[in-house]
């Protein structure tokens, strides 16, 4: 006859199994991103950031030691020894899927949807390889009228996922304080008409009402010169720009199209050089990554408000 284990043993075993199951459940986590529910099996320890502003947000959350690589640096010339702020630079643009999987990440975070459109690096494909993914809220493809709320969503979701909830709350409070400071600077002032120049390589690339720069300008007390254009990115014509003659020109400062290059292009053009903002040097430059929703958005609004106050 088989003897049954003592009751105390059975109770201990039962409690142990229950504890193991609860720990397994606690380690698995569901999270919302881009209007879908995703899951991650365990707290991420090997994180890959596929855009500079995604890396900046993760670094601000204090998880630099868990960042195993970063790709696609937009505006930082100080990449020392193949590293960005101490994190290994995997690729200057998007890496191949093979290069990503070779890093054995358990979480891939990107700032633009284009990061997940390369071959078998889709979010679904990553999931099939056991790799979780996160796309910053602004990259989800749904236009929102409050980019700063989207940044708070990113901070809260990633903060919870990474065990950095307290730090996320600190960053959210900092953004709100910077936005409040920006409002203080422009309250009572007449909004300046600002033309945003993203690039001048293939025409005057700018943004309309649906562009994130429109909201950034509002937060700084200014108005997008082409806010009546119901588009995100678009190319303005020389004639349109001359007819509207902006008060100020906001320049994106990127590695592939620096603010200085754009100023030279405008001043060398026989027609565009006649713009009042060009003649009077009424330019404001911001780093490219600060012009997209991220951990720098509050700072960008405050700095832009300070710069515009000078005009």
UniProtKB/TrEMBL annotation:
Per the database entry, which stretches of residues form a coiled coil? none
Task: Write down the Pfam families for this protein, in alphabetical order.
Answer: Peripla_BP_2
Q: Which InterPro entries match?
A: ABC_Transporter_SBP (IPR050902), ABC_transptr_periplasmic_BD (IPR002491)
The signal peptide annotation in the UniProt record is: 1-28
Kindly indicate whether the keyword Transmembrane helix belongs to this entry. no
- Name of the protein described by the UniProt record: Iron complex transport system substrate-binding protein
What lineage is this protein's organism placed in? Answer: Bacteria, Pseudomonadati, Pseudomonadota, Gammaproteobacteria, Pseudomonadales
Q: Which UniProt keywords apply?
A: Signal
Residue ranges occupied by any Fe/B12 periplasmic-binding domain in the UniProt entry: 46-311
